[in-house]
């Protein structure tokens, strides 16, 4: 099973691709349209600024590839900034249009009693335990690093949250499109379990 | 609420773990990658590698260790030791490390904190502070060069400056407590935690499981770091985490 890890010049893809390999998948780090469309599933990683990331995606035409892949029902997982890119827009350093695969916007954590960035191990609370990504897994801690968070417009897109002074979007999913705000590849056993679930969804084909 | 973190620290010289490691279930106790993978399996929340190589070749070897480690473990890790330029940071982060630890270089050139934070984000920059109580001042002084040189800088002032410059975390080692196994330096740790808003990793002095309870409660630390007590299995990480959980500390 080949998983395309989208290379668009943002961040280190080494840890994600190694994690996929440890789970028995073939990791294909690529920015090539036909390789991405030919893969069994797609991971959109991302570290850095939202505006830069969208610019890189547009410059290489990969925004269209992500939209086509999602429309074709190919399993797609956005990680960290990659999850935020799935949504309509972000207010990170100005206003930026996202990929628009899921409705919602990305906003900054309000400065308050809680430190920004939200960095460290925080506990997942599953809202849709029956989703194939989560079914049978136990809630636990995963590793977050982010200063902005997602407000999904559609409540049913929200699969899991974490508590950081407020309920923070941790996992989203609709059809074959998924997003994880935390880093599953840095989140110990639970992270690897979740990544493994995504891989099996890729193997199992499109979820109806 | 964030979980408190347990962090084993590995000293690496020319690609090998130094300071004894006493694990029966390792093929090669000196292999940093194998030891890192073992700590990951045991439930460590993060790892710190301190590169104490003195040569250019040793530093190069560390980059390879980082690359291999990143492929083997599923927890974040920090690499420190001998990093004095943004280019050094780039090399280590590209190889797969999550964070960079800087110590002496940050004291001699504080701008390095700001440059690193601007380039990679604050979450990547860990400022390591070696502090020792100065009786004449009635407070703690920063030491550099592996604890050999007094800097004349007050630790509480320095951590505030580091935070302002963009440090994401402070790795605080008490030179008074280090190696004693009498417990973490609670007054120092609490004073630093009260002075800043960024997380504090307490290091030096851990000898018992209760020492960790104390540093997370009285010491107000976000993470506890230790080396030999983990390497020699004086405290096992699963037992330590179970104990902390039972005592009401939020733990993964």
TrEMBL record, chain A:
Subcellular location: Cytoplasm
Catalytic activity line of the entry: 5-[(5-phospho-1-deoxy-D-ribulos-1-ylimino)methylamino]-1-(5-phospho-beta-D-ribosyl)imidazole-4-carboxamide + L-glutamine = D-erythro-1-(imidazol-4-yl)glycerol 3-phosphate + 5-amino-1-(5-phospho-beta-D-ribosyl)imidazole-4-carboxamide + L-glutamate + H(+); L-glutamine + H2O = L-glutamate + NH4(+)
Domain of life of the organism encoding this protein: Bacteria
Active-site residues, record numbering mapped to chain: 80, 183, 185
SUPFAM superfamilies reported for this sequence: Class I glutamine amidotransferase-like
Gene3D superfamilies associated with the record: 3.40.50.880
Keywords noted in UniProt: Amino-acid biosynthesis, Cytoplasm, Glutamine amidotransferase, Histidine biosynthesis, Hydrolase, Lyase
HAMAP family hit by this protein: HisH
Subunit structure comment from the entry: Heterodimer of HisH and HisF.
Name listed for the protein in its UniProt record: Imidazole glycerol phosphate synthase subunit HisH
Gene expressing this chain: hisH
Automatic annotation (TrEMBL), chain B:
Involved pathway(s): Amino-acid biosynthesis; L-histidine biosynthesis; L-histidine from 5-phospho-alpha-D-ribose 1-diphosphate: step 5/9
Subcellular location: Cytoplasm
Function: IGPS catalyzes the conversion of PRFAR and glutamine to IGP, AICAR and glutamate. The HisF subunit catalyzes the cyclization activity that produces IGP and AICAR from PRFAR using the ammonia provided by the HisH subunit.
CDD domains per record: HisF (cd04731)
Pfam family name, one: His_biosynth
Broad class of where this protein is predominantly found: cytoplasm
Residues at the active site: 11, 130
Coiled-coil stretches noted in the UniProt entry, renumbered to this chain: none
Catalysed reaction equations from the record: 5-[(5-phospho-1-deoxy-D-ribulos-1-ylimino)methylamino]-1-(5-phospho-beta-D-ribosyl)imidazole-4-carboxamide + L-glutamine = D-erythro-1-(imidazol-4-yl)glycerol 3-phosphate + 5-amino-1-(5-phospho-beta-D-ribosyl)imidazole-4-carboxamide + L-glutamate + H(+)
Record's keyword terms, sorted: Amino-acid biosynthesis, Cytoplasm, Histidine biosynthesis, Lyase
Statement: the UniProt record of this protein carries the keyword Amino-acid biosynthesis: yes
Database matches in NCBIfam families: hisF (TIGR00735)
Name of the gene: hisF
Enzyme Commission identifier(s): 4.3.2.10
Similarity section: Belongs to the HisA/HisF family.
Designated name of the protein: Imidazole glycerol phosphate synthase subunit HisF
């Amino acid at each position: 099973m080949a998983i395309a890890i989208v290379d668009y010049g943002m961040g280190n893809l080494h840890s994600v691709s190694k994690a996929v390999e440890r789970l028995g998948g073939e990791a294909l780090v690529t920015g090539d349209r036909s390789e991405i469309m030919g893969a069994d599933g797609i991971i959109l990683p991302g570290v850095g600024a939202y505006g830069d990331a969208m610019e890189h995606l547009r410059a290489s035409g990969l925004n269209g590839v992500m939209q086509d892949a999602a429309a074709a029902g190919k399993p797609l997982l956005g990680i960290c900034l990659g999850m935020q890119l799935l949504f309509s827009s972000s207010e990170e350093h100005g206003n930026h249009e996202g990929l628009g695969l899921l409705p919602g916007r990305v906003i900054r954590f309000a400065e308050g009693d809680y430190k920004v960035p939200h960095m460290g191990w925080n506990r997942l609370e599953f809202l849709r335990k029956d989703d194939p990504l989560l079914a049978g897994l136990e809630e636990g801690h995963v590793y977050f690093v982010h200063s902005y968070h997602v407000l999904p417009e559609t409540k049913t897109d929200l699969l899991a949250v974490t508590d950081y002074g407020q309920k923070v979007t941790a996992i989203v999913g609709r059809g074959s499109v998924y997003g994880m705000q935390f880093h599953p590849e840095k989140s110990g056993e639970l992270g690897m379990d979740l990544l493994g679930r995504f891989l099996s969804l890729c193997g199992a084909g499109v979820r109806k | 609420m964030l979980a408190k973190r347990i962090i084993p620290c590995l000293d690496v010289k020319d690609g090998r773990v130094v300071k004894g490691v006493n694990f029966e279930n390792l093929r090669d106790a000196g292999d940093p990658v194998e030891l890192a993978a073992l700590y990951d399996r045991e439930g460590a929340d993060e790892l710190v590698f301190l590169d104490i190589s003195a040569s250019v070749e040793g530093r190069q070897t560390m980059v390879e260790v980082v690359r291999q480690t990143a492929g083997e473990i599923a927890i974040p890790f920090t690499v420190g030791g001998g990093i004095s330029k943004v280019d050094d940071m780039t090399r280590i982060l590209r190889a797969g490390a999550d964070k960079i630890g800087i110590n002496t270089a940050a004291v001699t050139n504080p701008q390095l904190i700001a440059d690193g934070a601007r380039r990679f984000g604050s979450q990547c920059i860990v400022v390591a502070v070696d502090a020792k109580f100065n009786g004449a001042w009635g407070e703690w002084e920063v030491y550099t060069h592996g604890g050999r040189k007094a800097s004349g800088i007050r630790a509480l002032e320095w951590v505030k400056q580091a935070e302002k410059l963009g440090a994401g975390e402070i790795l605080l080692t008490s030179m008074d407590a280090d190696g004693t196994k009498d417990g973490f330096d609670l007054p120092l740790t609490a004073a630093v935690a009260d002075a800043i808003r960024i997380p504090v990793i307490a290091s030096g002095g851990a000898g018992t499981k209760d020492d960790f309870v104390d540093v997370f409660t009285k010491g107000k630390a976000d993470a506890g770091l230790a080396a030999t007590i983990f390497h020699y299995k004086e405290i096992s990480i699963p037992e330590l985490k179970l104990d902390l959980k039972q005592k009401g500390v939020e733990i993964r």
